[in-house]
Amino acid sequence: MKKLLIYSILTYLLFTINSSASNQSLEAKNLKIGILVPLSGPFQEIGQSFLKAIQLALFDIGNKKIKIYPKDSQANALNSYLAAKEFEELGIEIVIGPVFFESLERLNEIKNITFISLTNKTQNIPKNTIAFGVNIKSQLNTLIKYFNKIELSKTLLLSPKSQYIDQANIFKSSSIKFNRKFLYDSNPKKITGEIEKLTKYHERKKDLERRILILEKSDLYKDKSELKILEQKHTLGKVNFDSVIVLDFGERLKSILTSFIFSDVSNKVVKFFTINQWFDETLFNESAAQNLHFPAIDFDNYKKFERKYFKNYKEKPNEVAILAYDALGLIYYCWYNNKQQFSPEQLNNKDGFKGIHGEFFIENNLSIQKLKIYKISKKKFIKVY
After folding, report:
1. How far apart are CA 56 and CA 104, in angstroms?
2. Is pTM, for the whole model, over 0.90?
3. Which class for 282: exposed (0-12), middle (13-18), buried (19 or more C-beta within 10 A)?
4. pLDDT of 207-218, one tens digit each?
5. What is the pLDDT of residue 347?
6. Which of 9, 319, 331, 348 suits a disulfide with 355, CB 3.0-4.6 Å?
7. Domain boundaries in the chain?
8. What is the per-residue pLDDT for 165?
C-alpha cells in the first residue's frame, strides 16, 4: 500500500486498513468534510492556522475524493449554527470545528452531522460532538500514572479562585493523595504573601534565626561547622509536601513558581507540575521553572509538524493546529476503512488511533489521549515518562 505520510496519523492508520480495502469500488462518493473555524474577527488568525493545517493534511493524503468546505464560525454560537445548517443542505455529515466551546451551544439541534471540535472542555458536550482537544482528563490520567511510578504521596493542589473550577473539581475527585488543596488570589501582588503563609516561610525563617543564636554562643567545633552551613540558608526545616500541582499557565504560573523560590522551597527538592502546556519556551528564561513537569503531546512529532507547516506557509502554526491536521486524518481513515462511507460509529474504535500528536481513543464524546510527561531542564523539554 502506498505510504501517504512520513510521520502522520495517516501513515499509521492506512497501514492498519484491511487489505481488502484496495478492491473497493471506484464509484464511491466523495468524502465531503465541513470546516467550521473563525475566518474573520478577533480569532481569525487561529482559524486560518487550523484551515492551513487541514489543507496540509489534505495535500499529504493526496486523495482527490476528499472535498473540504470551509465556513466562517466567527467564534460564536449563532454563526456556527447557521453554517451547520448550510452544511446539512450540502449533505455534509462530518465537520471539523468549531474551535471554541462557546460555539457549540446550538449544535445539538443539528441531527445529521458529527462535529469534531477542537475544544478541550469535558462537560456539557453535545451528543453529536467530539471534544478533540487535549483535555483535563487525559492530563490527569497521565499524572496519576507518573505519580504512582515515582511514589509521590504528599501533593499540594493550587488553583486560582473563580477560574478553572471544573478542572479543580476533576483533580479533587482523583486518586491523587493531596496533602492540601488551596485556592489562591489571581492578583499577582497577593500571590507571594499567600505562598509564604502556605509554606510557613516566616516560621521557618524564625526557626533558623533562633538556631543561629544558639550556635553563635557555642565554642564546639560541630556547632561552628553547623553555623557556617546555616548562615548560607534562608529558612530552617522542611515543608510538609513533596510535590505541587499548579492549575495555571502564562505569567501567573511564573509568579506562583517564583513565589515558591522566594519562600525558600527548592524545585530541586519539591517536584512542581502544571497542565495545559504547549511547550512554552518563555519558561526557559525563568529559573523558577527549572524542573517544572507537565503532561503533553509528543514533542518530537510536534516539532516535525511545526517545521513542515513553516516550510509550506513560511510562518509558525497555532499550537493547537496539529489537532486539526490529525482530525482530517482520523476522518479519512474512518471513511476509507468503511467502504468509503463515513459512519460516526467508526470513531468509537476500541483499539484507538494514533496521530502525530500521539495515541488516543474516543470515549463518551471525548478524545482521551495517551500523553507523555516532560520537564524543563537547561532550556530543553526533556521527556521523563
Report:
1. 26
2. no
3. exposed
4. 999 999 999 899
5. 92
6. 9
7. 9-134+299-370, 137-296+374-383
8. 62
